Amino acid sequence: MNVIVTPAMLGQVVISGILAGALYAMVALGLALIFGVMRVINIAHGPLLMLGAYTTVFLYGWLGVNPYLSLVVSMPVLFALGMLLQRTLVFRVVDAPELSSLLLTFGVSIALVNLAQLAFTSDLRAVEYLTGSYVVGAFAFSKSRLVAFLFAAAISAAAFLFLQKTKLGKAIRATAQSRDVAMVCGINVERIHLLTFGLASALAAAGGSLIAVIVAVQPEMGQIWTFKSFLVIVLGGAGNYPGALLGGMLLGLIEQIASLFLTTQLSEAVAYILLVLVLLVRPTGLLGGRQT
Known about the structure:
By secondary structure, the chain is an all-alpha fold.
């Protein structure tokens, strides 16, 4: 199929890609944190995002809470749940081979999805709060995606500042660089692991709350977000926090460009092809791994 690409179409694709990319980057940052600090492959990251989305759905449906204000509930709740999971299960595989963490978190993922199906059923649920678009000249900005972009950018920036400027953030980065040296310097590594998993879960919850306003929510929605988060950190470099931002933006742009030229089914396959190509050509990612 021949597609004539106009400057307006290209500009719209770039705008849509950047709006989506910021959300990808924020969610993937949590996964990058866990892998960078603990060397744990967290397959349950997407299901935690799903729980954040359901928190927003029910707060909005039952109490009429502004879905964006629900972040102040979903993030602390998932932070606590993340610490509970780390304290009871994940800590057992921190020093084990990475396959062990993959299998454990895969089991946690299945459990969370099935519990959500039992509790919430598989019915699609939506938060019809912000619809339509802002039109600026030849370009349209989806209201829900624009607001999600602003929140995701702000939360990601806050996370980066926390890691760079605060004492606790520096302790997390030190643990990621060398656990043994961090222990010698008096850092409580077990506490850092606990807080890191909680922080990553809170970032996933933020993503879920923002996504709930954009798409319908159902128990299996987190699986695709786990995959996209892995793709983002593979693009940027495993354990590389700035790389998560770059990878998220690239994934958003590539997906939107693919949708311009390909059918829906083929454009969805682009992400999988991209993952294979990056692993073959540059397995350490565009910025390299384990940079803090």
